[in-house]
Each structure stands twice: as structure tokens, then as C-alpha cells.
Amino acid sequence: MSKKVFDQMDDTKNKEVDDSNKEVDDSDKEVDDSNKEVDDSDKEVDDSNKEVDDSNKEVDDSNKEVDDSNKDVDDSNREVETEGMDNKTRTDILAEMTSKLSSLKYTDRNDIVQTYNKWAETGYEQVFSSDVFNAPKRTAEVLEELYPFEIDKKGAKILDVGAGTGLCGIELRKLGFKNIDGLEPSKNMIAEAMEKDVYDRYIIEMISDVKLGIQDNFYDVVTACSCARHFPDGFPEIARIVRPGGHIVILSNLDDQEDKEMETMIQKLEDQGLWKVVRMEIVEEFFSVTNQRGILILLEVLTDGNGNYPEKEILTNRTKVLRKYSVCT
Ligand SMILES: C[S@@+](CC[C@H](N)C(=O)[O-])C[C@H]1O[C@@H](n2cnc3c(N)ncnc32)[C@H](O)[C@@H]1O
């Protein structure tokens, strides 16, 4: 920018030289004076060029400072990369933990939680960094499709089950969702979410066939990102706490054996009329390091917590609540 200004100054001074040369042609008598003017003006040009040089030097110096400070940023990024995890280490840790988890049945709940407690301490978040683990972002995007308007995003009550360290909650916040609770049985995993202040409420519980201390139809949406394989027996309980007309978004590893068990359960509950499958699709690059694909399942809950279908009444109340909310804000 300043170079442009100085170039313009140059042009102005050079124009002065031209004008003064014209005066030399007009009158011999004025030659001496005019030459003097030319000399003076040349001197001015020289002085001004010197100023330009000096100021260019200043610009160069300041560019050097910018370069040096960018170098600092580059160096600090390099440090982050070095502290981060290379893909081989990621793959090794993932293979070890997956093999441990696969040896457990979903009913081995305490062992599963202990495994995650340990994993939280040995770099869960480094393995599943947002540049390679796309499942939380994809899960959040589905909610955005369901709630495209800001007002609905503010009002929607979301429970992120198997919340882990809060990756899905973070993606939901990025998209503007405001009302998000996290349910997670592993204290070490949820401690990281608490540190980042991701959720409004932290529910240290596990999903199973045991009734939770959450009232019927309380949530508009439940998300289960990369965790539903741990609680297929708890699906009716999830349906109980989601209002009729509300949704459950499940995104799981496509190749997991226990996810097949999960799919069987989803089908069974659809046959019973508890919910309906709205969408089921393959998600490429669920976890890009191992080219792992995922399966996304969007369910709409049809009954209330008691297996009834009071859809119309509850939906009407819900709309009233949302309207009231919109007036207050
Ligand atoms: C692979 S992590 C996924 C965490 C998080 N959703 C994410 O995307 O990073 C699976 C999580 O499910 C939790 N989990 C295991 N059994 C559970 C259960 N019965 N109910 C709820 N969460 C459970 C684990 O403790 C763990 O944090």
C-alpha cells in the first residue's frame, strides 16, 4: 500500500521535471533560471527518491518482521504437528482399542466404560481429531437439515448420548444449536468435554434397558455418534425420552459386527411402530485414516413414552412453546 503512495509521489515529481523542461524551450533568457529550476527540481526528485528508498527500506524491514512473525506461527504449527499423532500411531492405537472393545459384549458395561476411561488418558482426541474423524460433523449436519432456522436451533432440546469428550456437541454448537446436554458413562471422557464447557447439562449415566431419570418426551433429538453399538438394548429407552415427531440420529461404523445387532433392533422397533426409519445411508470417510465408512440412520419417534400415539396434542404444545420462545428472544 505505502509503495503505491510513494510511486504516485514519484510521478508527481517527475511531472514537475517535465514542466520545468518545457519552460527551458520557451525562453532562452530563462534558460539559466530554468536550468537552475531543473537542477533544483532534480535535486527534489533525488531527495524524494531517497525518501522513497528510505521508506521502501522501512517497508522491507516491516515485511521482514511479518515474515519473522509468520515463521513463528509456522514453527508453532510445526510443534503442534509434532505433538499430534501420525497416522501409523493412530491406526495402531485404534486397532488395539477396537480389538479390546470387540472382545466385549455390549452387556459388559463396566469393562467398556473402563476401556474408554483408559483411552481418554491415552489420547482419544488425538486419534479422533476433526481433520480425520468426520462422524461428529456429519451427525451435526443432519440436525441442521432438521432445524434449518436459527429460532428452531435455539429451541431444539438435544441430548448427545455416548457424548465422549464432546466432539459432536462442539460441531452442534458451531452450527448454532444452543440447548445441548451430554450423557456419558466414562468420567475421564466427559471430563474433557467439561473442560471445554461443551454441554449445558452433564448426565453421567449409561444407556441400557434401565429407565433413566429423564422425563418422557423431554428431548426433540437424541444424537448417538459412534456409540450406538454399546446399547442396542437401550433403544426403547431413547425413544421414551424423545417426543413423538422428534428424531434420533445414529452414525456408526459400518463394519462393526455389533452394529448389525443394532440394525436388527432398529428394524424390530420399527415393526412395533415405536419409530420409523426416515433415512439410512452410507457415509464415506467416517474415519479417513483407515478409509472407514459409516452408516447414518435417521429415525423419527412415533409414540410417547408409554407406547401411545398422542402425536397431535404434543406437537401442538411444542409449537406453542417454540412460538413463546421466539417472542421472548
Ligand atoms: C467411540 S466413543 C464416541 C464418543 C463421541 N460420541 C465421539 O463421537 O467422539 C463411544 C462413547 O460411548 C460411550 N458409551 C459406552 N457405553 C455406553 C452406554 N451404555 N451408554 C452411553 N454411552 C456409552 C463410551 O464411554 C464412549 O465415550
From TrEMBL:
It holds the Pfam family Methyltransf_11. Residues 1-24, 46-89 have a biased composition (Basic and acidic residues). InterPro entries: Methyltransf_11, SAM-dependent_MTases_sf. Residues 1-89 are annotated as: Disordered. Residues 159-250 form the Methyltransferase type domain. CDD domains: AdoMet_MTases (cd02440). It comes from the Eukaryota. PANTHER family: METHYLTRANSFERASE (PTHR43591), METHYLTRANSFERASE-LIKE PROTEIN 27 (PTHR43591:SF101). This is Methyltransferase type 11 domain-containing protein. It comes from Sinanodonta woodiana.
